[in-house]
Every structure is written in C-alpha cells, then in structure tokens.
Amino acid sequence: MSDGLDTAEKRGQWSGRWGFILASSGCAIGLGNIWKFPYITGENGGGLFVLIYLACITLIGLPIMLAEVLLGRATQKSPVGAYRDFSAKGSPWVIPGWIGVLTGFVILSYYSVVAGWALHYTWLSLQGGFAGMDAETIGNTFGSVFANGNLNLGWHTAFMMLTIAIVLGGVRHGVERIARILMPLLFVMLLVLLGLAMQSDGFAEAFSFIFSPDASKLTRAGVLEALGHSFFTLSLGMGAMITYGSYLKKKEDIVSASVVISILDTIIALVACMVLFPIIFSYGMEPGAGPGLVFISLPIAFSQMAGGAIWATVFFALLVFAALTSAISMLEVVVSTVIDETRLRRTAATLLCGTAIFLFGIPSALSGTEGFAGKEFKDLTAGIFGEGKGKNWFDTFDYLASNWLLPLGGLMIALFVAWRAGAAAREKGFNEGTRFQNLYVAWLMLLRFLVPIGVVAVLLHALEVI
Ligand code: TRP
C-alpha cells in the first residue's frame, strides 16, 4: 500500500535501522551545521568553544535525543500522541506536545527563507559565480538579496514546494528515499571540499584555531550559546526525534542509533569548519564575520580562486541539500501529528500544513523590506524588546523559537521522561533491542539532574538573570 494513504491506524515505517539513521541524520544535519556552527565558532574564538559544544552534545544533547527517540518508538505516535500515551488520560502533558508541533511550524516558516538564499547562491554560482566581483560588491549582493522581497518570496515558494513534494511521498518513499540519495551525496561533496581546503595555505592555521583551546576568547555568553546550539543542531526540543522514532520497529537499537546520529552530526559540523576556515584564512578574511560568513566571506574567497565558480556551486548545492532534509523533518512533525490526531490522510494533511507554513513564512521572506514585515514590524516590536532593539518578523520568530520554544521543549521532554513516565515502560523502552542496557542508569541520572540544570541555565541566561 502506498504511503500516500497513511492514516492514524496505518502509519509509515522506516525500511530498517539505516533508513532511520540516514533520515535522522538528514534531519539533524542542516543549516545549523554548515552555516551557523562555523560562524558562531568564529565569533567565540574557536578551540574552547568547540570543546564546550562537544561536552554539551555528549552530556545534554545525546540524553535528550535518546529520550525523544524512546518516547516515539515506545508509543509509535507523534509528539502529542506520545505524551498522551505515556501519561494519564486528560493529562496536561499533551500541551508540550502541541507546543512542539507549533515550534516546527514556526521554525520551518523562516528556515525556508534561509534555504532560499542558499538556492539563490547556487543559482548565482552556476552562472559563473562571483568571479571578477570585488569584496564590496559581494558584500552588497547579500544585503540586496535580503532587501529584495520578490526574490525572497520566489525562492521561499520554490523551497516550500520542494519540501511539500517530498513529504507527500510519505515516510519510506519520500523522507527516507530522499535522505538515502542526498546524505551520501552531501558526505562526498563535503569530503571533496575538505580536500580542496587541505591543500590551501590556511589549513594549519585553521586547524589550530578550531582545536586549540584559548580561554581568553570565551565569554559566559559563549558557553550558553554552545548549549543552545547543541539543541538546534541535533533537532531536539520540538518532537522531531519523537516523530522519527515513532517510525522505528521495536526491535531496533535506539541507543547505538542515537550515538551514531550525534557523532555524524558533530563530524559534519567540524568538517564544515575545516572546509570554511582554511579558505577564509588563506584569503585573509576574518573568522568572526557573523551570519555573513557563508554568504559574504566565502564568496569573496571563491571569487579569487581558480575554478571558484565550480567550488561555489558545490558548496551552495550542499547547503541546499542539508537544508532540505532538515526542512522535511519539520514539516513531517506537523503532518504526522495531523494524521495521528484527525481523520485526514497524508496527501490532504501535507498540502494543508505545507500551505499554512508557506503563508506564515511570507512575512519572513519580506523581512528585509521597508514594508510591514520589515521596518514597520521592527518599530512595532520595539515596544516589547526595548527602544532601538525592535526585530523584524524573521528575527522575532527566530528569537522566539530558538531561544525559548526549543529549550523549553527539551526541558519538558527531559522532565517528562525522567520523572513522569512510568519506570517500567521507560526502562523497557530503553532496553528493547539494545546491547547497551548497562548504560540505562547513567542515562537516567543525566536526564534527571544534569540536563534540567543545564537547560534552566540557558533560559535564565536569556532572561539576563545569570
Ligand atoms: N538540526 C537542523 C539544523 O542543524 C535544524 C532542524 C531540523 C531542527 N529539525 C529541527 C531544529 C527540529 C530544531 C528542531 O539545521
């Protein structure tokens, strides 16, 4: 039977362990790894920041990922149903499930706009790239892309249509199949780019920037940024891993699968740094350039490189692939919840949710303009964020979702699974299919104590209490 006929009773399923691992890696590996991680590493001075990020992934991210996958696999439901099944009837614990779905909805609406820039830059690279442009022109290009409402709207539409088309195909024939094609391609392209970077003059300098800890450059804010990013990069806190876990058969080993996914995600983030920084250093650019690192500094380097247009095309296509498999996961959470909770089938649910997210993203696509979503929204929100600190539509929702909704969602999942879920069901959920049953107690201790404390620290930081 085709996946297009998914109903609550007849859910999709991965073909097996590797289907799950590839799809989940596709979900985790995204703009967060290739666009965001290098620039925040650059801003925070490298070395020590990377070390703290690795600690956060291992001690906080990984335990939460296991909790999410466990909840999904044990209940075979999306976030809302998963929370419901593991608590008493009528329990308020379904609320964090719904908040997760809402978070996915919001994040995808603006993630698609950034993915649209990657599409646009792939297009520019294909047309000969940035050859012959000087640094200033390239810098202005990025500024004028964001300010061009129609351009952003066009790419946002294209990217959302692509995402919808894949999710329409269902779990195995849509989500898994595209991950099976794009993920290996992404690994190969990144390795090819790594080969290029290793031959450049800046490689040694970049290597020591990424790996030698330098305490003087790290701020307290940087520590918390590392923690927050470990959530985003592993796709935690909104039920994406609950949903992906729910398509797993009971006999699969979720402990080793979660470890593999976290390691792959981390390796890709580190390799992205090892590709970007040598190129950046070789051409005398600054590592701390911020969000423009990938869209300004890198094209400037490509513009001076032999064969730069080809390398640029490879890089930006890679960015599109990474973004696409992540965007799919966000839409899948929303769609899967609608399938589980209503009588709608996959086709109707996907078209409905996809269109709604697309519409909600339109103001994000127009956020660089002088109109309502841009300048006017900035003036409007100055009343909330303080004079001169107003944010456009895009920044407002990015701020709400990444700084508040994800950590809150992660905290809820940790508290729920560690303290609220029945001990027997939890232990069974962990142990089923795995050889690593001896890790159960260590995992539970992390989830009970270290994880909530770490997450609360992020929230207090956001409130400027600590
Ligand atoms: N992890 C992805 C990235 O690094 C983004 C992402 C996909 C995500 N699904 C998510 C983030 C769910 C939070 C929650 O780009």
Major beta sheet, specifics? none
Coarse shape: globular
- Give the percentage of residues in beta strands: under 5%
Put simply, the count of helices is 19
Element order, helices and strands?
HHHHHHHHHHHHHHHHHHH
- What is bound: which ligands? tryptophan
Tally the beta strands. Answer: 0
pLDDT < 50 stretches: none
Radius of gyration: 21 Å
Describe the protein's architecture and organization.
The longest helix has 34 residues, at 308-341. Helix 3 crosses helix 11 (240-246) and helix 9 packs across helix 12 (254-282). The chain is built from 19 helices and no strands. The chain is mostly helical. The model has no long low-confidence stretch (mean pLDDT 92). Residues 27-28, 30-33, 232-233, 235, 237-238, 240, 326, 329-330, 406 line the site of tryptophan (TRP).
What's this, in brief?
It contains 19 helices and no strands. It is an all-alpha fold and 466 residues long.
Topology:
Layout: H1 17-28, H2 31-43, H3 47-75, H4 79-85, H5 94-126, H6 135-147, H7 149-168, H8 170-198, H9 203-211, H10 220-233, H11 240-246, H12 254-282, H13 293-303, H14 308-341, H15 346-365, H16 372-385, H17 393-420, H18 423-431, H19 440-462
The structure holds tryptophan.
Tryptophan is lined by residues 27-28, 30-33, 232-233, 235, 237-238, 240, 326, 329-330, 406.
